[in-house]
Amino acid sequence: MTMAHEITPEVKMLCDEVERFIREQVEPRSRAIEENDAIPSDLMQLTREMGLFGLTIPEEYGGSGLNLVGKCAIEEVMGHTNYGFATLIGNHTGISTTGITSLGNAVQKKKYLPKMASGEWIGGFALTEPQAGSDPAAMLTTAVRKGDRYILNGEKIYITNASVAQVFTVMAITDKSKGVKGISAFIVDRGIPGFSIGKNELKMGMHGCSTAPLAFTDCEIPAENLLGAEGMGYVQALKTLTAGRVTVSARCCGMMDKLISRTAEYMKTRTQGGKRLADHQGLQWMLADMAIARDAARGLTQRAIATLMAGGRGTMEASTAKVYSTEALGRVVDAAVQIHGGMGYMREVGIETTFRDARIVRIYEGSSEIQRNIIAGLLLKDD
Ligand SMILES: Cc1cc2nc3c(=O)[nH]c(=O)nc-3n(C[C@H](O)[C@H](O)[C@H](O)COP(=O)(O)OP(=O)(O)OC[C@H]3O[C@@H](n4cnc5c(N)ncnc54)[C@H](O)[C@@H]3O)c2cc1C
Known about the structure:
By secondary structure, the protein is an alpha+beta fold. It folds into three domains: 9-118, Butyryl-Coa Dehydrogenase, subunit A, domain 1 (Orthogonal Bundle), CATH 1.10.540; 123-230, Butyryl-CoA Dehydrogenase, subunit A, domain 2 (Beta Barrel); 235-379, Butyryl-CoA Dehydrogenase, subunit A, domain 3 (Up-down Bundle), CATH 1.20.140. The chain is 51% helix and 15% strand. It has helices at residues 9-36, 41-50, 68-78, 83-92, 95-103, 106-118, 233-269, 281-309, 315-340, 342-345, 351-357, 368-379; strands at 123-126, 142-146, 149-160, 167-173, 183-189, 195-197, 211-222, 226-227, 271-272, 275-276. It has a four-stranded mixed sheet. A four-stranded antiparallel sheet has the order 2-3-7-6, with helices on one face. The chain is globular. The model has no long low-confidence stretch (mean pLDDT 97). Flavin-adenine dinucleotide is lined by residues 125-128, 133-134, 158-160, 203, 206, 211, 360, 363-364, 367, 369-370, 373.
């Protein structure tokens, strides 16, 4: 097995700073974020000042230039706090900026990245459509070249950060006859004529992080907003999602860490039947299983990171890590609720919030079923 890269002292220091920021600034506001389904504007400002929006953007554009090792280390830390907040940042510093950092030309980078690094402009990534979810190749959104413009028509749904984003990476068909090789990626600015953002969806969890549909009606964008060459959109989306799946796995490991330490703490303080929960062997074994699941998830996540860092495609490793870590989180949070008893069901305690938040990770960035399809497809591929 390829081993993971070491975390540098700089990344370790950054993780410590983020950990402190979460403890001092995010956690005290977490209940309010959950209840109001919004990130307070003062926290957004503090987050900008902290530099969290620029984590993965190259230093020359004002960011911290973290690679996948650093990004995943931060995701683990972010797994310890409000899920909506972590997703807003994780999406912006992941799938919503990757298109520009990897495919963007010098002009595009100079125009967008400094403002995205400072958090003045937040990013969104728009692939999914009403009839094209697990099968994004079934998309219908078109971008037709007309002189020095492209005309976009179509709809996107479930777009993370849509209500607050200024810059969207949008996938659209430029040449239907070429199938997935006719899908291209574009930078689309909020507020341009013909581009509208629908109302924020009410969701089971992930409160504080918006999810909304986008609509393009004869929406004209400058041809220079094409990312890379025509036809590179689908391959880029798949690459983006492969790395995205690893970062989701890393966040799940952080979430499991927190659930395990909270549950262990509770087991030491709660007494039933004349002894602490910690002294009931059945519960000890549940706690042990939680830790085993977390450690296995972390191992698979580290393997996927190492494969991608070594220049491998990492498709199998990323899908394996994602399906395992997200399902492990489901089991761990369920056990955490169970061990907390009635307390685990109470909103105020917060385990219930994680129970709802955790449900999304098996659906977005490729569902568990799609990850299994990918893994089986690779195993059954003819040489
Ligand atoms: C909160 C949230 C945020 C999101 N953020 C974004 C975003 O920022 N950008 C973006 O582009 N998209 C985003 N999505 C979309 C997300 O990626 C899709 O919801 C997901 O890929 C599943 O697509 P679907 O909802 O259309 O489900 P469907 O594709 O209709 O799937 C329904 C069920 O069938 C299963 N299924 C489908 N096809 C197969 C198959 N071939 N084999 C076996 N089982 C199958 C699925 O696993 C699932 O269980 C978000 C979704 C949510 C809920």
